[in-house]
Please model this.
Amino acid sequence: MSRDLRITRLTVREYEWKMPDLGVDYNGFNTVFERGSTARQTGHVLTVETAAGITGEYAGGTSVSYAQLGMVAGYLIGKDALARELIWNDLKRALRKHDRFGMGPIDIALWDIAGKAYGAPVYELLGGFRTRLPAYASTYHGDENGGLSSPEAFADFAVQCRDMGYPAFKIHGWGHGPIEREAAAVLATRQAVGPEMDLMIDPACEYDTFADALKVGRACDEAGYFWYEDPYKDGGVSSFAHRKLRQLIRTPLLLGEHVRGLEPHVDQIVADGTDYVRADADYDGGITGVMKLAHAAEGFGLDCEIHAPGPAHRHCMAAVRNTNYYELGLVAPGLDPKRVHCPLYADDFADDLDSVDGDGCVPVPQGPGLGVTLNWDWIRAHETSAVVYD
Model:
């Protein structure tokens, strides 16, 4: 390729928007349904420009990600945007004293450049083999406000999602609530949807004790759950603790969302700390990092489940054999998705409750790169700050 794809400029834009009928739970960390309340959200867009005029774009990441980007921006200027493996390993070393969140957005934007340079969607560059992905409905956390506020409410919503075509449904339970209610939601949801729908639960590290995790795990066993994710407040990182839990329940565990990078994930696998392997392009070093994790899991005969929705994750999942479901969320009954989710994309890409087809699948974007068009008019209208590195 003769085009000059040296990186010339990086720009990070921050924007804000409001989400109606959403609030927070007891400690302010979990977003929950709350009629009449408004949640203020912050987002980011990274653009990576090249000498050839091809620009990589990625909407995602956190303030932590972009603080780290600022630490390595000087290194990136002048680098060949197609030299992703070199850049990935250099950044891995440079950010070794941190959690390496900054690697994700950079790598994803570089894959967007590569797809645009070759005129192909990212999933094709990855060796992708499918264009439709089965999805599961991933709920907001349980609330005390008349939304997902009871086991019956979760059960009813699961039936709604099943009838829309979803083949699977995941509960995010309550924070700081009675463990008996958590177990009751597990059982009530299975009873409501019947045996065919795959069910999961993600306590998001809310359970205080091993005993609480065991009680819910045994309910998952009784109800035949597909997986049990990040149960208690170790943060989802202790291989020993989860190995002990695995010895006492039959339901497979899904761990790794809070384990950073390739080697710690492999260590967790070898230590029998998980059954499914979690991966996230924002958290684990971009698309390059996700594919490394998926292939490592494949070598151990395990499935790699990709965390959270978004264009990058659709491309990754399209190129991974050993994976099961696309996480579509967060969703809840009674919310207008067109008001809750910001109009970040100018085309028809969306991760709303009604984004699945009748078979419960979402499409993989087919345009060059990530294959989506950002809604720049909306982004600029909601922009709160911009930082340029050149």
In short: The radius of gyration is 21 Å. Residues 103-118 form the longest helix (16 residues). The mean pLDDT is 97. Residues 125-363 form a domain with the TIM Barrel fold (CATH 3.20.20.120).
